Amino acid sequence: MQTRPPLPASFRPKFRRLNMALLKRARFSWGVPLPCSLDPRRFFSYGTKILYQNTEASRSEFFPPLRKAMLPPNSFQGKVAFITGGGTGLGKGMTTVLSSLGAQCVIASRNIDVLKATAEEISSQTGNKVHAIQCDVRDPGMVQNTVSELIKVAGHPDVVINNAAANFISPTERLSPNAWKTITDIVLNGTAFVTLEIGKQLIKAQKRAAFLAITTIYAETGTGFVVPSASAKAGIEAMCKSLASEWGIYGMRFNVIQPGTIKTKGAFSRLDPTGAFEKKVIDNIPCGRLGTPEEMANLAAFLCSDYASWINGAVIRFDGGEAALISGQQNHLRAVTKEQWDTIEGLIRKTKGS
User: Fold this and answer.
1) Residue 160 and residue 195 in contact, taking contact as beta carbons nearer than 8 Å
2) Which DSSP string corresponds to 172-222?
3) Cα separation of 212 and 196, whole Å?
4) Helix (H) or strand (E) holding 84
């Protein structure tokens, strides 16, 4: 029987004051003591040299973004796509990809000047017409008029992307009722008004469509300092999952993308105005970088395409692993060094009984 070689002197415990909480986590799995019958020495490899990757290397090198369209050309030929918040950021990115794939796009937001400039820019790139319609999604009457104009200039939409949003960081106790109402009116009520109005028109016309809502990873978990947004986004997800079951009979699909941190000028100007938080955010993303609008647009295009005709009621997390890392109970152990793990392993090997 092969005996275990002694640890080299350089691997022997060096840390006399090793954090006791860390030792406790190393000795117990999810708070349960090791059973007496389990030999902790069997938990580790014998006779092999453990390889430690250089953690100073950039993780992002393993996950380079692809910025070209994923779907085949003309995947949306002859189709109409309606995108709220389509003039900037993620909305502009999704509009660009859909237009490049043949869709006739109609974009809507409050700022008509920005919309027109974006429409002209995308049209010149793709050669496909992009229409701009001014709309404040908080106003049901304005939404109704926008949908009427949409149908008039382009026809009933085959794709509806609810992307219009508003958000800013603040301690919740500093928020006024108007601040709460402003965010929830745009995010939740605006999405509902657009969805209901277009949905009713589609049912009358007996036309099918793919709906997509853009929420966020904290819609599921909640988070402080953007509580109105978290609450409104969670409501959107509940609505989409509900309509996926109810309106499937009319030929409508409803899916959701939960983006993690994707750097766009508009979002970062309100959520990281000083630029101080970006590095901290990247530290919490296993893929080692922020997302790009082009990657987001590719996922959106796929979910709204006929290639995804059996995806309905899905909520897709798109965050480079951020949510998984920050929610994992033991993931703080990433901070443990190689030398500290050598010490911990030695202590675990010596563990006997309970």
Assistant:
1) yes
2) GGG--HHHHHHHHIIIIIHHHHHHHHHHHHHHHHT--EEEEEE--THHHH-
3) 13
4) strand 80-84
> CA-CA distance, 199 to 192, in Å (whole number)?
10
Task: Report the distance separating Cα 31 and Cα 295, nearest Å.
Answer: 39
Dist CA 347 CA 7 (whole Å): 12
For the chain, 354 residues long, give each residue's pLDDT as a single digit of tens. Answer: 444 444 444 444 444 344 444 445 444 444 444 454 556 556 776 555 665 555 555 788 899 898 899 999 999 999 999 999 999 999 999 999 999 999 999 999 999 999 999 999 999 999 999 999 999 999 999 999 999 999 999 999 999 999 999 999 999 999 999 999 999 999 999 999 999 999 999 999 999 999 999 999 999 999 999 999 999 999 999 999 999 999 999 999 999 999 999 988 766 666 676 777 788 888 899 999 999 999 999 999 999 999 999 999 999 999 999 999 988 889 989 889 988 998 988 888 888 765
Helices (H), the chain: 20-27, 89-100, 112-126, 140-153, 177-184, 190-205, 218-221, 227-246, 265-271, 278-283, 293-304, 322-327, 338-349
**Helix residue spans in 14-88 (DSSP H):** 20-27
Give 141's contacts (C-beta < 8 A, 6+ positions apart).
none
Q: How many Å from the N-terminal Cα to the C-terminal Cα in the chain? A: 26
Question: Which residue type does 130 have?
Answer: V
Contacts of 4 (CB under 8 A, 6+ apart): 41, 46
Catalytic residues: 218
